[in-house]
């Protein structure tokens, strides 16, 4: 079983609206800079990237720490094609696999429990074991529309009540979706940001890596970087501004009390509205 105690309610709306709408200057700026970054990303030299990886060195120690909350921010952002692959592999629904990607805010009590988390994050629902509180809703009110819907810009892998990834097999620390695991997992602890290679904290860094493995990692990293940028660009192009209003926050708080929080997730294919409680 991948999921225990699923508390997803239902998907009530999904759309790939092609409605014409005016972009703000900020959105236009984002679109232009994303296009430029993609253009430069496509010119990245995979040979140089592989050489850089080889100098850093990496060999997975199979500790499973990157999939667990206790060792730091283990959120895994997903693009729609990745969710689809996992869906085909597992037979789970989209909403069983992924939830709204939400800003990095941690309720204080959870933060105190885990000294590895310095920035913090907020689980999207009780599914994750971290419930919204009215205070948290206030912090993210920029993302709440006048009808009390909470907007998110992308998806993240669902987590268990202990905040570990739902696909981590507890007893063996093995990934249950290994053949179709997300690109982030495949390329961890490396990532590319603004054309530069970066690493996250990981016990496997510094170990020798073969030329073939570093080349494969470089190819996967390149693919991930470009796919994520292209997906983000498509999302911004598709995005329709939502209307804010004074009553939105109060409505969202009421829905929270009634366990009927509504989310609208924007992605490259449109937007999805659903109740998650
Ligand atoms: S999908 Fe697999 S590799 Fe990725 S975080 Fe979950 S268990 Fe770990």
What does this entry look like structurally?
By secondary structure, the chain is an alpha+beta fold. The protein has one domain. It is 36% helix and 16% strand. It contains nine helices and eleven strands. The protein has a four-stranded mixed β-sheet with strand order 1-11-10-4. A three-stranded antiparallel β-sheet has the order 2-5-3. The chain has a two-stranded antiparallel ribbon with strand order 6-7. Strand 6 and strand 7 form a beta hairpin. Helix 1 runs antiparallel to helix 8 (211-238) and helix 2 packs across helix 8 (211-238). The longest helix is centred in the last third of the chain and has 28 residues, at 211-238. It is globular and about 60 Å long. It starts with 7 loop residues before the first strand and ends with a strand. Residues 1-18 and 116-130 have low confidence and may be disordered. The site of iron/sulfur cluster has 11 residues, from loops.
Write the layout of secondary structure elements.
Elements: E1 8-15, H1 25-41, H2 46-56, E2 77-78, H3 80-90, H4 94-97, E3 98-100, H5 108-113, H6 134-139, E4 150-152, E5 155-157, E6 168-169, E7 174-175, H7 183-187, E8 190-193, E9 196-199, H8 211-238, H9 247-257, E10 262-267, E11 270-276
Parallel strand pairs: 4-10
Antiparallel strand pairs: 1-11, 2-5, 3-5, 6-7, 8-9, 10-11
Helix pairs in contact: 1-8, 2-8
Bound molecules: iron/sulfur cluster.
């Amino acid at each position: 079983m991948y999921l225990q105690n699923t508390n997803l309610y239902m998907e009530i709306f999904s759309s790939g609206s092609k409605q014409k709408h005016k972009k703000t200057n900020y959105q236009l700026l984002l679109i232009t800079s994303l296009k430029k970054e993609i253009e430069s990303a496509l010119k990245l030299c995979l040979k140089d990237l592989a050489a850089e990886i080889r100098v850093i060195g990496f060999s997975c120690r199979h500790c499973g720490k990157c999939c667990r909350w206790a060792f730091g921010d283990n959120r895994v952002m997903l693009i729609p094609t990745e969710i689809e692959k996992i869906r085909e592999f597992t037979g789970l629904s989209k909403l069983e696999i992924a939830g709204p990607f939400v800003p990095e805010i941690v309720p204080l009590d959870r933060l105190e429990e885990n000294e590895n988390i310095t920035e913090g994050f907020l689980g999207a629902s009780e599914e994750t074991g971290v419930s919204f509180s009215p205070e948290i809703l206030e912090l993210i009110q920029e993302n709440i529309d006048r009808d009390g819907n909470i907007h998110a810009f992308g998806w993240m892998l669902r987590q268990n009540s202990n905040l570990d990834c739902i696909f981590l097999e507890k007893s063996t620390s093995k990934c249950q979706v290994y053949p179709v695991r997300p690109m982030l997992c495949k390329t961890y602890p490396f990532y590319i940001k603004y054309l530069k290679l970066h690493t996250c904290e990981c016990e496997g860094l510094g170990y020798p890596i073969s030329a073939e493995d570093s080349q494969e990692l470089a190819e996967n990293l390149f693919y991930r970087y470009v796919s994520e940028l292209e997906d983000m660009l498509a999302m911004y192009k598709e995005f329709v501004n939502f209307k804010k209003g004074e009553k939105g926050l109060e409505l969202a708080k009421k829905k929270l009390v009634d366990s009927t929080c509504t989310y609208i997730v924007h992605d490259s294919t449109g937007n999805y509205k659903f109740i998650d409680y």
